[in-house]
Design a protein that fits this description.
CATH class: Alpha Beta
Distance between the termini: 47 Å
Order of helices and strands: HEEEHEHEHEHHEHEHE
Largest sheet: 9 strands, mixed
Radius of gyration: 18 Å
Strand content: 15-25%
Mean pLDDT: 92
Number of strands: 9
Number of helices: 8
Oligomer: single chain
Low-confidence stretches: none
Strand order of the largest sheet: 3-1-2-4-5-6-7-8-9
Bound molecules: iron/sulfur cluster
Structural class: alpha/beta
Shape: globular
Length: 258
């Protein structure tokens, strides 16, 4: 598929040293329990993302360069490994750096850790390669809108993203990799009706994995807005379960339920 990252091209970025060991690193959190809910994880943020979601929480990781040698990441993972059971690759979009993602996932596996991937679904071929190499234990896939334009383009700032996301869903289904689909709801999009449509799309594809409906918050520096109340998200999750028949739960900051 056009636009998939090329390992050679990736290696040519940056200057000097062994380019295959360079990673455009956004940061590392040694211990997190929120990225893979309830599981202690080291989270590695890879810089760079092909999308421009208007409320992007990690906007500072969408672009720019802060290259490090993979040894820096390996050392952090090794020292955290006695205290965690998995490594989560996040971003930005971690699959935009296929070689780095492959090496980090491989190291995690060598250390006996599980690997989770948080992805926007833009790089199905990279995802397939990693899953087929048995380097992925769980995929957390953002489905930001019903799977067609103009809705998806509005949510991501880029056209023709939806077919890629759909292909990632199909890969997870075909290769039986555990999947959590996440939809983040902001006041203007996706509408509650559109979240129902996302649920229908998942059902039509045969996806039985849970849908997590997340409360979108204003990103740093943007005009503040009131998030969609937790009660509406809870009602929505219940409606998706009841009417569409797929597992759904909601996640909010938790202080506006009543
Ligand atoms: S896919 Fe994620 S990192 Fe990329 S722009 Fe959207 S929210 Fe930000």
């Amino acid at each position: 598929m056009d636009g998939e990252p090329d390992m050679k091209e990736e290696e040519e970025k940056g200057e000097g040293r062994d380019q295959s060991r360079r990673v455009n690193l956004g940061g590392i959190v040694s211990l997190s329990t929120v990225d893979w809910t309830g599981v202690a994880a080291t989270v590695v943020f890879l810089r760079g993302c092909p999308l421009k979601c208007p409320h992007c929480q990690n906007w500072h990781l969408r672009s720019g360069e802060s290259f490090e040698d993979l040894a820096v990441v390996e050392e952090k993972i090794r020292s955290a490994s006695p205290f965690v059971s998995c490594v989560v690759l996040s971003g930005g979009e971690p699959l935009a750096q296929p070689r780095a993602a492959q090496k980090i996932a491989g190291l995690a596996k060598e250390l006996g850790l599980k690997v989770g991937i948080e992805t926007c679904g833009f790089y199905p071929n990279v995802l397939r390669d990693l899953v087929e190499a048995e380097l992925v234990d769980h995929v957390f896939l953002d489905v930001k809108a019903p799977l067609s334009d103009p809705e998806y383009a509005r949510a991501t700032g880029r056209e023709a993203v939806a077919p890629r996301v759909k292909e990632c869903l199909e890969i997870c289904l075909a290769l039986e990799v555990p999947l959590e689909v996440r939809t983040t709801v902001f006041p203007e999009m996706p509408s509650l009706e559109e979240v129902g449509t996302i649920g229908e799309h998942l059902q039509n594809l045969g996806i039985e994995s849970p849908l997590t409906i997340q409360q979108g918050q204003p990103r740093e520096g943007e005009e503040p807005f009131d998030p969609v109340p937790a009660k509406e998200l809870r009602d929505l999750a219940e409606a998706v379960k009841k009417l569409i028949g797929i597992e759904a739960e909601y996640r909010s900051r938790g202080d506006d339920e009543d």
